[in-house]
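User: Assemble these into one structure.

Assistant: Restating your components, then the assembled model:
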Amino acid sequence: MSMKILAGGSLGVFGLAILASVLFSTPAHTQEPAKKTADQATTDEGKKIYDKYCAWCHGEKGAGDGPGATYQIPRPRDFTSGAYKFRFTPSGDPPLDEDIFKSVAEGFPGTSMPPWKHALTEKQMWAVVHYIKTFSDAFKDAKPKKIEIAKRISPSKESIEKGAKLYKDLKCWECHGDEGRGDGPSAKDLKDDWGNPIRATDLTQPWTFRGGSSHMDIFRNFTTGLNGTPMPSYADTNSDEDRWHLANYVRSMAPEKDPSAATLISSAPIKGPIPDDPESAAWKTAREGFLPFMPQIVEEPRHFTPMVTAAFVRSLYNDNEIAFLIRWSDPTESKDGAAVDAFAIQFPAREGEAGTKPYFLDGDEENPVMLWLWKQGAAGAVELLGKGLKATGPNPKAGTFTKTVASYNKGEYKLLVKYSLKDRPKGTVSFAPGAFIPVALQVWDGGNGEEGPKKGVTTWTWFTLEKPTPVSVYLYTVLAVVGAVVAQGWIVRRVRRS
Amino acid sequence: MHSSGDVAKHPSVSKGILKGVIKVSVILLLVYAIVELFIGRLPQADYRAFPLTGSRIAIWIVAQVHLLFGAFVLAVPLFALICEIIALKTKDERYNQLAYEFVKLLHMAFTTTAIFGALLLIALIGLYPKFFDHMTKIFKPTYYVYVLLLFGEVIAFYVYYYSWHKLVGRPLHIVYGALLNFFGISIMVAANAWAAYMQTPGGVDESGNLVSLWGAINTYTWMPINIHRTIANISYGGSIAGAYAAFRFLAAESDEERARYDWMGYVGSFIAIAALLPLPFAGYFLTMEMYAFSQQMGITLMGGVFSWLFIIQAVLIGVLFLAANYYLWLGMMRIKGSERYAKYNKWLLLVVTICVIVWMTPHSIVASLEEARKMGGTHHPILGVLGVMSAKNTAVNILILATFLSFILYKRANKIATVPWAKTGTLVQGLVLAIAVGINIFYGIYGYFVEAIVRLGFSNYMVYAVLAAMLIVIAIDVPMFKGARTTGPIEWGKMPPRSQYALFLLAITFTWTMGLMGYARSGIREYWHVYGILRDKAPDSFTPTLGYAANIVSVTTILFLGLVAWIVALGIRAEKSGKTH
Amino acid sequence: MQHATEKRKRRIPLFLQAVLIALGSYLVYQYGIRPPIPASILFMFMVVTVAAVLLYVSLDNESLEEFLRPILAVIRDDRWKIVRWAFMIAIPLVAGYVVYDKTVPKIEPPVTVRSVHPAPPGSINVRGKAYDLRTLENPLRKDTANFAKNVKAGADVYIKNCYYCHGDFLDGKGPYADFINPPPANFQDVGTIAMLQESFLFWRIMKGGPGLPSEGTPWDSAMPAWEPILSEQEVWQVILFMYEFTGHKPRRWE
């Protein structure tokens, strides 16, 4: 019996202790009751949190003028006006407390406003909401009313067609463009209520929709309008059904699922010549990789207000050439002047050990990069050697581009470049099938004043030429099967005999 | 056991001395001849390329196999001496037989060690002449000492070996054994001085000129390496003995033979595990000295690429613990009355498994970009918690306690305490263990809430708690089971064959770990032959990837174990033919 | 008595138990841990678990027998002929598939070994001034009179330079964080700045990704070298701010 106590007792403690350590090691989420009523203590608490986390963009007095505000488009909300874009209240009305809370908790995709629910407790966020309201007189005596959301109409083909007609009739395209890329004729001169330039949303990129990209979010925006912006409310001019059709149409401009950033761009082998036509079957079937851009914010002149948000890349190769087909949205076509639209594909300049990469911003003296640069209006792509953002120049060991085709249509660029694998200078990236090559992209939107170091960039991603499966793979597979058959045959025989 | 005819076969001691002197001289002369006749005529160069594999792999493999054999021929006499002393103390003749099983393998092992040593010397002179010149410039006097020690070792061995049957069990023979170990350890200590100098050089000025020979010998890491290697060798000898016994057990044809080798395997594994326990402290001492020599080197070792080796080592140590515990649990089968405890084994297994999993969880993680993105940062929030020192200390300490408990239960499997306070004693033991576990878990968790320095202090308390608990439990155990009623003797040989594979695993894991951690120690010199003094400008001076290093370590392990198997096979053949004659 | 309890415990056949434990553990590792753990770790955990299960079923001869009984029955007993053949066909196919899957060239990015804190050099040179990283301390910590002012200045430096990637909560989730691989460091985490000396941060900020040791793993940090942009004073201020904001304490010299 006593032995049992020894073993059982200590085992029990082992078990409990391990259980305890598991329980304690995961951060416990403390559920504090959300406080919805404003009192002095709450706003005081809100001020503390606001001053620590919010003031540096929204300013100490809530005027949207904190030290970080200068570098942001869209600019941080000015709380003194009481105008909020995303709400469930009629156009021009201040928002519900819940609307502000949701903005704080969920943040706004595509802007600098992060979701705070990961960092703050519900109670803290409510305190901030109440403190924010003290910045504006609009909330005094105001009793904002929640709008009714009409019954949803499913996004059927007919509904989308009706929505398309409304898009035309209501002149949505004047700002948002024919195909929704924010490239409409009046898009360039849009200003918000404070006189700051504002862009028409690119409807083909729902992952950048500030107020969310569900059908419901879009419908709400049509109903309430976005206060403080040129986007009006259609609640009075159009029926609920119309607004649902329109929402269904707008959402149909992009795939249901947002693309995720590619970690590998691959080039597919192709027999025969690579077609020049982006619409050809070979290109249509090639895998497409999505790469989002960030602006170059490191070296002067730093660029904080990018226009082009992402590019889609495909690639094909044969024995002679490798080709890239890239498409990206750009609301303005800029051919002349200092700032023209341009695009570049970046590789390391030298063939190195797998893994050694140059710095992603045009490399440096020790580890240079090779840039395939295309500029709007130029005859074709050229190859540059980059030894830093301000040290790029023609590559003395440049390869040959066999073809460059570029087109701009309804807010979208399509660029096709072909590079000769035969004329590749020695020591440069070999594009050997199966090898992993770092690749990065760069983009300039002339209409946004981007030139030189002011550009959109990506960090390194892997690029590879897909290898046809070698025969040895099948050999190993067959060997494995045969080996397994023999081994288990032997075991079964032995067992059955014994 | 051994007939008098067997003894008569052995030549006299003086003949053995002559044999040893000739053997060493022949090998040295051969090396000299090769160097003079072939390498001496090659054109001058800093580096020369070895065909096919390249110089680095060639020297790596030769050096590693030499080192493993060196460890073997050092471990066996140590092991034999310990056994002989135990035999003298306990009057248990089996220990002497156990020792002799290995001693008779020694002369083949010595020859193989010497051949690989000669190859290593030739390779160093031939492939890395500039480096060898530098070493010679600093260490020339020690070379002569080394050669003298070699002669001493071989002579001592033959004296010890050939006098075995006449003198075994007598104090004089133990003195011979001590002498053999003196030479063996001295050789290792001399070679350690060179290796330690390469890593943490001293006694030279900045351009590598000798200032003080003693300074070059007595560097930061010399003593720690001496200690670490000596302890590791005892452990290693035990594990090899265990594997040898396992092989003989599986091949045994009679119950008597099986019983003998079962016992031998048990003793071997016991020595291996017992010597393994202080090893982390020796390792800690070595690492501390490395830090003291160069913080950069310390951080490269613990925080850089090389930290991955410690993760692999953690995995291997996890394997060691699982295998050792499993062996103990299965060992209860040879004890009548063990059913009382055997049923706790599965719960101990659960504890050990959980601890091993926590212990293995790495802080740095191999992940694809996609996975890293999903993890949302440079490390995983939950794995990160398990990956840091706090959790690991707790896990490994509980692991040690669980293994200790397995052992205690094994020990008392056939005993029933008769002292009146047995119940209380057991209760206190259980309580002490529980408190030790509690302390470890408490500080393990509390460690997350304090800064690093305080956390480092905690690990001391945790270790003290474990040591104290083990001491108290033993202190109670010994008087408690004095005059205990027994439920039956240990029936050696009544062990399922699957238990023996645990012993194989132990030996393979030991060998592999030695290769891998040896690489870690040597590899952190990175682009230097002699750290900070003599740069490695050879074309293959890159730091290899883990997979590459692991492959080479595997090659050396297979090569070594293959050669040992061959030596063992020769020994068994000699034994069989000896019997039939 | 004891036998009865043994019997009662063994209601689930041992073979099934083993399968259930292995399967259950897999489900926990795969779906129970959020965010998901990398495949390499999952594999490691599963190997240990399966090994432990095999040890469990072979702890004594009776249980090993019980565990093997269904397997042996399938092999020996012709009533199980269909099952036997199903396994005998499935096992080689699975073996073939695994080998094929392991050897076929894959279109997926190479796996990287990432070391969270690379080794710093002994000393660095910033704009011609040498700093010994082994002894370097934040000089602003001594200036207690201006502490709050320096933290405030550090906040300004942070918002103008760092927050785009490292976020305004300092949790590595800035507006551009998603575009960067490997992702920006999360300073709120206990595993980052809380484990490091201030001199380490000074080195990482001044020298950035390009200044990482060449001995390091493939390291493609997008962290810029701030040496030409920020002054020494500003860097110490921002370090001060990072610790103040997160509440972490820098690691002290031992």
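Chain A is about 25% helix and 15% strand.
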